[in-house]
Amino acid sequence: xxxxxxxxxxxxxxxxxxxxxxxxxxxxxxxxxxxxxxxxxxxxxxxxxxxxxxxxxxxxxxxxxxxxxxxxxxxxxxxxxxxxxxxxxxxxxxxxxxxxxxxxxxxxxxxxxxxxxxxxxxxxxxxxxxxxxxxxxxxxxxxxxxxxxxxxxxxxxxxxxxxxxxxxxxxxxxxxxxxxxxxxxxxxxxxxxxxxxxxxxxxxxxxxxxxxxxxxxxxxxxxxxxxxxxxxxxxxxxxxxxxxxxxxxxxxxxxxxxxxxxxxxxxxxxxxxxxxxxxxxxxxxxxxxxxxxxxxxxxxxxxxxxxxxxxxxxxxxxxxxxxxxxxxxxxxxxxxxxxxxxxxxxxxxxxxxxxxxxxxxxxxxxxxxxxxxxxxxxxxxxxxxxxx
Amino acid sequence: xxxxxxxxxxxxxxxxxxxxxxxxxxxxxxxxxxxxxxxxxxxxxxxxxxxxxxxxxxxxxxxxxxxxxxxxxxxxxxxxxxxxxxxxxxxxxxxxxxxxxxxxxxxxxxxxxxxxxxxxxxxxxxxxxxxxxxxxxxxxxxxxxxxxxxxxxxxxxxxxxxxxxxxxxxxxxxxxxxxxxxxxxxxxxxxxxxxxxxxxxxxxxxxxxxxxxxxxxxxxxxxxxxxxxxxxxxxxxxxxxxxxxxxxxxxxxxxxxxxxxxxxxxxxxxxxxxxxxxxxxxxxxxxxxxxxxxxxxxxxxxxxxxxxxxxxxxxxxxxxxxxxxxxxxxxxxxxxxxxxxxxxxxxxxxxxxxxxxxxxxxxxxxxxxxxxxxxxxxxxxxxxxxxx
Lengths: 388, 388
What we know:
The structure is a homodimer.
Chain A (H helix, E strand, L loop, with lengths): L1 H15 L4 H8 L3 H13 L3 E6 L10 E5 L3 E9 L3 E8 L4 E8 L7 H21 L2 E10 L2 E2 L5 E5 L4 E5 L11 E5 H12 L9 E6 L3 E7 L2 E2 L30 H5 L1 H7 L9 H10 L3 H25 L3 E4 L7 H15 L13 E3 L6 H16 L1 H6 L1
Parallel strand pairs in A: 3-6, 6-10, 11-14, 14-15
Antiparallel strand pairs in A: 1-2, 3-4, 4-5, 7-8, 8-9, 11-12, 12-13
Helix pairs in contact in A: 1-2, 1-3, 2-3, 5-11, 9-10
C-alpha cells in the first residue's frame, strides 16, 4: 500500500509538477499529512526535489513546490530503425538529457552487429548521463516489427530481415529492466503521455510510418496489445482487395499505396537512405504536381483503411505520427474526405467525423515513447529506485 | 469488501456450480472458514441452494454441493428485432425458464407502439416467472442500432427507422435496473459467457447479422465499447472502396455484399419477413448454384473486412453468430481463405490464421446475452438481492 502511494505521489509530481504538497494531496485524495510523509521519503531518496515558495494562491504560507528529480534514476530509450539508430536518456521529469543518432543500413542486417553498434551508443549515452548525475533505471527499445507480447523477442521485422531474434542477450548489462516494443506502439504511448490532460480517458488510433506503416490503438488510456502482441497492423488492412500484391502475401494492402517506398516511387523519387521524406516534403512544398498526386493517393488509401478502423473502434481521435506527420498539410485533407464519406454510422449520423491531427512528435515518437515508457516503469516502482 | 466477496462467491458458484465450499475457497483464494460464512449468508438470503453430498473425490466427508438458486431473483432479456420481438427470463444459474417470441414488422415503426407490445410480453413473462417463484432483478434490451454509451437512448436504428429514442419511459416499471445495448454487443457477451473457461483472457471479434451486419469486439474479457458506444460497425468497413453505394453514404461497405438483404437478393430470394435465412439455407443444402455463389461472395467480402479487423486487433478467435451462423458450412471456407491470404503478418508469419467458428447460439445470441447480462449485473450486487 505504501509503495502504491509512493508511486502515486511520484507519478503525480512527474506528470504535473511543480506542485505543492497540498496540490498533490488534492489530486490523489490523501490527507496532506499522509502526503507530507510520503514526499519526505521521496525527497530523502532523491526522487523528488523542492524549489522555493510557489505563487501564493492559497491562504497562509505558500508551500514550496515539488518537482521530480533531474538527477538520479533515468529512463533510456533506444530505436532501431531501418536506416538509423538512436538512443536518448530521459530524466524523471520527462526531459531528454542526452541523445545520440546514427545513420545505418539495417535492411537485411545481422541483429548481433546492429545491437553491437547500438550497445556502443548506449554505453556512450550512459557515460554522458553519469556526468549529469543520472543513472539508468530501465531501457526500452523500439523496433520496426512484431514483438512477442511480454518478451524481448522480435518475431519478425521484415524491413530489417530479422526473425525470432531475442535482443536481451545482445544488449549491454546494467541498464535496468528491459522492454522491447513495436515502434508504432511506443509512438502511440508518446502521444498518449504528451497529449490531453486525462490520458486514462483517451482513445485513439495512432498511425506512423517508417518504411512500413504501423499503427497502434489506445483504448481508455491503455495500449491495445492483441492476443499475441501483434495488434495495430493497419499497413496490411486491405484497401483494394484485388490491388497489387503486397510483400505480406495479400493484395492491395494499405502499405502498397501509402507505405513510404510506395509514396516515394509514385512521386518519382527513388527510395534510399537519407533522401526519403525530406525530398518528398520539399516537392510538395514547391507544388510539384506528381508529388502532390502521390500524397493524395496515399491519403485516400489511408483514409479508406482508417474508415474501417474508425467504424470498428469508435476512437475519440486519429493521430498521424512518424514521417507521415511531415506530409500532414497534403495528407490530411484526403484522409478527412474518406472518413467523412465512410464513417457516418460510427459517428452516430453526425456530420463531423472523428478529428485527425498530425503528431507534434513526428518521427521522434518511438524514441521518446521508449524513453518515456522506461521512466514510467521506473516511477511505478519507487521502492526499487529508493533502494538503488 | 464483504459485498465484494459475497459477489465473488455468487459469481463463482453461478458460473461453475455445483461446487463444494472447499472448491469455492480454492477458486477465489479465501479461507474455507471465510467462504462458509459468506455461503451461509447467501443460503439464508435464498441466492444459493445446497444439494446432497457430491461425489467423494476428497478425503473425508464429502461436502454438500452449492448451486445458484433457481428461485428468487432472475434476469430478464428482451430483443427488438426488425421482424420479431422476444423476451426471456433467466434464473441465477443461467437457465432460461420462460421465453416468448412474437413476429412483428418493426421496419419504419413507432417506438411507443413497439414498446407497448414488448411491454405486454414482458408482463406476461414476469407473471409466468412468478409462478416458478422468480422475481425480476433487472432488464436488458437488445436493439439493432446505436445506443449512446451508458444510456437507454437509441441514437439511430436505421432498420427500425428510429432515432434519438429513449426507451426508459416506454418500458413497464418494476423490473429492476434497465440497460439497453446494441444486439451485436449482447450477442458477443453471450458468446463470452458461454465460451471458454477463462473468459477474462478471451479476445475475439463476434460478427452477427440480422438485416444489417453487426459486430462486437471483446478484448481480455471486456466488451470494447468505443468512445461514444458505437464500436463494432463492421458492416460499414469498406470492402471495395469504389463499389456500389451503401445506405450509410459510403461505397462498397461490407453490408452491400454480405448484409442479409444483399445475400438474399444475390441468391434470387426476395427479402421479406419470415422467409429470410431459412430459405437461403435450404437452397444451399440442396446445392443450388446461385445460392452457393451468393454465399461465397458474401463470405469473401466478410473475409476481406475481417482481415482488416484481425490485422488491427490480433484477436484469439473470430465467431460468426446471428443468422449468418446458419450459413457456416458455406460461409466459413471463403472467410478462412481471405484470412489466410491477408493476415500472415498479424499471425506473426505463421501459416495458421486466426480460428473462425460459428456460434452455437446462432440467432438467439442477443436475447440470451441480454438476459445473461441482467443476471451478471444482479450477481454483482448481492446486497441489493439480499435486501430485495
